Amino acid sequence: LSFDESYYWIYSRYLDFGFFDHPPMVGLSIFVGTAIFGQSELGVRIVSNLYLLGTILLVWIWYESINKNLFFGY
């Protein structure tokens, strides 16, 4: 794990929404991933990868629905 991932893993163990310097969604995501896949690197990283996959799919759907002639200018 990288430094940030281990820091947020510890934060996910002690979730507290009173901190202003912690993004709560990262802690919640790691908490959910480790609850499903256990205390492993997969559990820490899986939910963020699912967010990335969802973003790619949304951009793909958006790209398919636009007029490509207007988008590329030709």
Task: Write up what this structure looks like.
The protein has helices spanning 3-13, 24-37, 41-65, 68-72. It has 4 helices and no strands. With 74 residues, the protein is mainly alpha-helical. It is elongated, with a radius of gyration of 17 Å.
What is the gist of this entry?
With 74 residues, this protein is mainly α. Helix content is 74%, strand content 0%. The chain is elongated and about 50 Å long.
Q: Round the Cα radius of gyration to an integer and report it.
A: 17 Å
Roughly how many Å apart are the termini? 46 Å
- Share of residues in strands: under 5%
Approximately how much helix is present in the residues? over 70%
Per DSSP, the total helix count is 4
Main beta-sheet strand count, sense and barrel state? none
Catalogue the unreliable spans.
none
Roughly what is the average pLDDT, rounded to an integer?
81
Order of helices and strands: HHHH
> What's the count of strands?
0
Overview features:
elongated, 74 residues, mainly alpha
Per-chain topology:
Blueprint: H1 3-13, H2 24-37, H3 41-65, H4 68-72
Helix pairs in contact: 1-2, 2-3
